[in-house]
Amino acid sequence: GVDISALLKQTGHVTLDPGYVNTGACTSAITYIDGDAGILRYRGYPIAELAEKSNFLEVSYLLIYGELPTQAQYDEFAEKIRRHTLLDEDLKRFFDGFPRDAHPMPVLSSAVSALSTFYQDNLDPADAESVEISTVRLLAKLPTIAAYAYKKTVGQPFLYPDNSLGYIENFLRMTFGLPAEPYEVDPAVAEALDLLFILHADHEQNCSTSTVRLVGSSQANLFASISSGIHALSGPRHGGANSAVLSMLEQIVAEGGDVANFVERVKSREKGVRLMGFGHRVYKNYDPRAAIVKKTADDVLDRLGKSDQLLDIAKQLEEVALNDDYFVQRKLYPNVDFYTGLIYRAMGFPTQMFTVLFALGRLPGWIAQWREMIVDPANKIGRPRQVYTGERERSFVGMEQR
Ligand code: ACO
């Protein structure tokens, strides 16, 4: 019953755009998306080409510094990251304080927040050297933190990083290895995880990245900003969708595998029932990342010699949805998260780690966006306006008269 246009007139020059559907908050030279054409490019390079020819650390360099590295630049970058993978022993004790069944996302965010207390001399956003070392520390330590968050839930000892291994291999060993047993990293798994991290590495002004920028716009440090971004990512409408997809597929199987019936429930707008992993604010066409992930899901399951009933259900769901008017009219296509969970599951990750994997992949994008903002002369503190809809003016009423 509120007359918004009348209120807008009263408020003057405020634009009301809930969810920022049509409001640009910054200029950026990092990621280009054409949602209608299904195009995604990092620094001008098409995502499919990077997925095929590059690796995650190289893509991280590209996003953060703007250009592909030379061999010497790449080696130096990788070496710096390798030398910072350890966590301070005091930080390690943080993990003891969480309950055994703690969800790894808030653990991840808390530990990143705590990093700022260990590196208090390097927090000034205006100091380029501090920003540089914080960048390296975050990229190096997040996989260690993520692996420890997992180890905590399974009650296994933490493994120190093995710096003879590559970035992805090191993370896999810290996650799945045991101290007394040699751990052979499966190259098929490492390659697929590297690819998935590339696909997640940036996606311009999505909810978590906008959060990182907004928090950073107050000149809060990089660790504080990224920690906030991790929380933003955790919601089921954002990064949390990858685990929500798995729960949805499991529920369909538990209820007898009736895909058509589930789609009907989505269409009838039963409360809380959405087709998870479908739809996107910007893509009104097939998400180019989803096409690559779908193929990877087939390859990985084949190479690991696993078949997954849930993959069949997912494909059936996609088939039904893509041919159904409800989804066609609303331009709802599979997004990056529709098939990722199935791959993570085949790799041996429990469902609650899926969004943590998203965070590991998105980290270079968050860092690149924060750094771009910090040096942007047009950068101001983020401070949206509002359209006030409450009582105009009232006189205070004493408690005895209420
Ligand atoms: N299932 C069923 N209907 C949907 C879905 C879905 N997944 N997504 C959107 N719709 C419908 C809405 O009900 C709405 O219909 P209406 O116009 O008749 O009311 C219409 O499509 C538009 O939806 P909005 O919610 O307005 O679209 P918005 O751009 O705000 O939301 C979002 C995008 C959040 C991604 C949404 O599609 C969604 O909730 N998807 C499921 C969760 C998901 O997969 N999230 C991952 C996003 S990608 C990422 O973070 C990696």
UniProtKB/TrEMBL annotation:
GO cellular component: cytoplasm
Active site, per annotation: H280, D337
Pfam families given in the database record: Citrate_synt (PF00285)
Top-level taxonomic group: Bacteria
UniProt-listed GO biological process terms: tricarboxylic acid cycle
UniProt-listed InterPro entries: Citrate_synth-like_lrg_a-sub, Citrate_synth-like_sm_a-sub, Citrate_synthase, Citrate_synthase_AS, Citrate_synthase_bac-typ, Citrate_synthase_sf, Citrate_synthase_typ-I
UniProt keyword annotations, A-Z: Transferase, Tricarboxylic acid cycle
GO molecular function, one term: citrate synthase activity
Catalytic activity: oxaloacetate + acetyl-CoA + H2O = citrate + CoA + H(+)
Pathway in which this enzyme or protein is active: Carbohydrate metabolism; tricarboxylic acid cycle; isocitrate from oxaloacetate: step 1/2
Annotated family: Belongs to the citrate synthase family.
NCBIfam families linked: cit_synth_I, PRK05614.1
Name assigned to this protein: Citrate synthase
Record organism: Actinopolymorpha singaporensis
